[in-house]
Amino acid sequence: MGDPAGVGPELIWAVWEAFRDDDVALVAIGDSAVLAAAGGGRSIAPVEPPFELPFDPPSLRARGSALPVFSPGATSARYAPGRPSLEYAPAVIAAIETAVGLALSQAVDAVVTMPIAKSVLQQAGFAFPGHTEFLD
CA quadruple 119, 47, 8, 99: dihedral positive or negative? Predict the structure, then answer.
């Protein structure tokens, strides 16, 4: 999802709208409340563990017109667009770690990252300059 205060949540909806009818299984990883709020009235479908891995298009398409969302951590803080906050950094880090873990375990074929507030994550203890370096 990237930073909740950034453009990531809106970008996720745009990507999902563009590819949801294709034979591609998309699942968003991030705070479900943030993604629901960014959805402009569109629905999310929570994906709860244990879930079937690897994710497959038929099971995700069965969720109908709702964006599948796996939330490894909630922000537990109000966010203001354009204003990154240390309060929700742990949820952003959890989403990055979860996505990369799913890729390393070959449960998913790819990870698409959204913009993050690097300085905020570093203040929260993220030991990498950004998620690109985390992927290395």
Answer: positive
For the chain, state the CA radius of gyration.
14
Amino acid at 25: A
Taking the CA atoms of residue 123, residue 126, residue 128 and residue 130 in that order, the dihedral angle to the nearest 10 degrees is: -80
Total residue count of the chain as it appears in this document: 136
Q: What share of the chain is helix, strand, coil (3-state, %, to 5)?
A: 40, 10, 50
pLDDT digits (tens, 9 = 90+) for 28-39: 998 888 899 899
Whether pTM > 0.70 for this model: the answer is yes
| 83: β partners | 80
Q: Say if CB 22 and CB 47 are below 8 A apart.
A: no
Distance of CA 34 to the CA centre of its chain: 10
